[in-house]
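Sequence design from tokenized structure. All designs in this work follow the same two-part layout: the structure record, then the generated sequence. An example of the structure record is given first.
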């Protein structure tokens, strides 16, 4: 017992068409036999779809078109192309409104199967054009399919370029932020290096040097206060000198860059 064909049972198509079709729709293509043309196209694809749903368009030798779900006449194929155009237009509007990497990725992710399907649809209609070279409708369908393919291709390229630019811009901003943090950290290291000797000397002496200012109770007594003692001034002076020396060592190029090891 022969299996049921995926073509509509009411279609009086050549038996060759049914014999050449399996249980799945397969790739988009055109078949020709005894003046009959069968177009096998795909429904609007989605990234989540593993398989593809087929749409069949049958052209009889007298030029009459039939379709299973898109109406009779040439309007069936035209409606099929219009749905692709509308979908690509929606992605184009989404691309224009995109501002983040997530938005651009959504456009690329959703448009990828549309671009592939449009390319294969154009090839199938070109094949039909070669099988029926005198049919002007097929020529127009072929040209519209090419415009859909080209529009999807340009939109995909624009979305990818925008995504790459956005990533490069974010990377540049992060690099600039890291540079600013490195500069700030370097400045803090210089300050720490400058005051480290003074803080060490103060810690060694207990920060309890008698300088004469600890007994002052008011501003009026400041003028009559004795000058700071010599040990206090000596600690400050030594700390400043050592601070400059350590700062020069921290900021020197030889200290910040390791020596290159010659390769054997």
């Amino acid at each position: 017992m022969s299996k049921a064909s995926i073509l509509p049972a009411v279609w009086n198509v050549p038996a060759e068409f049914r014999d050449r079709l399996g249980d799945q729709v397969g790739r988009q293509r055109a078949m020709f036999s005894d003046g009959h043309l069968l177009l096998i196209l795909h429904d609007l694809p989605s990234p989540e779809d593993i398989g593809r749903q087929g749409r069949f368009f049958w052209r009889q030798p007298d030029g009459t078109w039939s379709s299973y779900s898109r109406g009779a006449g040439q309007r069936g194929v035209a409606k099929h192309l219009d749905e692709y155009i509308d979908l690509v237009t929606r992605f184009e509007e989404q691309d224009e409104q995109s501002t983040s990497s997530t938005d651009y990725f959504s456009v690329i992710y959703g448009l990828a199967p549309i671009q592939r399907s449009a390319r294969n649809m154009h090839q199938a209609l070109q094949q039909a054009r070669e099988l029926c070279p005198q049919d002007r409708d097929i020529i127009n369908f072929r040209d519209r399919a090419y415009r859909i393919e080209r529009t999807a291709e340009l939109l995909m390229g624009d979305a990818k370029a925008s995504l790459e630019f956005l990533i490069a811009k974010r990377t540049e901003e992060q690099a600039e932020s890291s540079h600013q943090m490195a500069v700030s950290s370097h400045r803090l290291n210089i300050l720490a290096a400058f005051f480290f000797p003074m803080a060490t000397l103060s810690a060694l002496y207990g920060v309890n040097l008698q300088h004469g200012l600890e007994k002052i109770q008011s501003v009026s007594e400041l003028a009559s206060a004795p000058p700071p003692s010599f040990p206090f001034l000596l600690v400050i002076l030594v700390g400043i000198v050592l601070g400059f020396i350590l700062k020069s060592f921290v900021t020197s190029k030889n200290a910040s860059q390791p020596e290159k090891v010659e390769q054997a």
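Residues 28 and 120 are 6 Å apart (CA to CA). We note this feature because it recurs in several other targets discussed in the main text.
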